[in-house]
Amino acid sequence: MWLLLAVVLVQLYYAAYYFLPFAHRPPEPATGPDDEPVSVLVCAHNELENLRRLLPLILQQDYPAGFELVLIDDRSDDDTYLYVQQLTQYYPHVRLVSVARTPDGLSPKKYALTLGIKSARYERLLFTDADCIPATNQWIRYMQRGFNRPADMVLGYSAYAEEPGFLNKLIRFETLLTGAQYLSFAWRGQPYMGVGRNLAYTQPVFYQTKGFASHIRSLSGDDDLLVQDAVQQQARVAVAAEPGAHTLSEPAHTWGEWWRQKRRHLSAGRQYRLADRIRIGTFIGANLLYYCMAIGLLFSRPDWVPLATVCLVRTGAILAVYYQLGRRLEERLPVAWLPFLDAVYFFYYLALGISLFLYRTLRWK
């Protein structure tokens, strides 16, 4: 019981120090300086249908200082090239970078992104993926405003579209909890990752970290490992968590697809700084220990009153914090589902960790 109480106190510390203050922080101003042009980069591999949806929404962005749209066609064999070429005839600020092949042993996406970054005209760079869309036509404005804090790198939030079914609820819960971690940690001055679906940084930061050189052969990590390297170089990191700064992505539709996606994402964690691994591992480990010990005590001969009290306090406090985070990030999950999603998520995370330890081969599209 004392150990159970200790892990609950650890969880309440994360909730009280990181999550709740972040959820209640004042909203970002609706107006601000927009005096620097930006290069918006999208890397695509056989994503024609997604690009037909995404690119018009980017071109409709309201950003007074102006922007260019750099589409990186990474070895596509659909009609991506023809579609973007047609756009360049009507929109002079749309540019196409074509990648015919990737050198052996290098991550295809990182190599393609490097070519796109080198061709970008502006110092500020804003990234999203082809299967995303900006939540509003103020997306560029909100993300670029993060540089005025001042900062060299801006972390945004990317939600997943709501669909029927339990898998979709679990994906959105995992996205909310992951976003709460990396955004609130960065807000507290401890940045450790971002997501390539909604990330901005400057060209000087990219070159100071030597780009993706330290992990160019790893399939994952074009976002979080770059943040790791940038922080090592004393880069200043800001957070843009207003709903207008969000992007929205298509979720995985099968358990297998999501399993492979999460394996790729988690595989980069082995290269995080020790302090970050300890901080994240403590949070994940405390939640896993809580469930394992609570189940163990339930089937032993417990003193029911202390056990029920600890579990009720923990569940009520954590769910209240998750609800506040959902409101802050506009991730509206059914409150009645949160206890079940919380339990399933942490055991799913444990299974992913075991899988990565036993089988390290990753798949890429």
From TrEMBL:
GO molecular function terms listed in the Swiss-Prot or TrEMBL record: glycosyltransferase activity
Coiled coil: none
Residue stretches making up the Glycosyltransferase 2-like domain: 39-173
Entry keywords, A to Z: Glycosyltransferase, Membrane, Transferase, Transmembrane, Transmembrane helix
One Pfam family cited in the UniProt record for this chain: Glycos_transf_2
Transferase in keyword set: yes
TM stretches of this protein: 280-299, 305-323, 335-359
Record-linked SUPFAM superfamilies: Nucleotide-diphospho-sugar transferases
Domain of life: Bacteria
InterPro entries xrefs: Glyco_trans_2-like (IPR001173), Nucleotide-diphossugar_trans (IPR029044)
Similarity comment text for this entry: Belongs to the glycosyltransferase 2 family.
Protein name: Glycosyltransferase 2-like domain-containing protein
Upper classification of the organism: Bacteria, Pseudomonadati, Bacteroidota, Cytophagia, Cytophagales
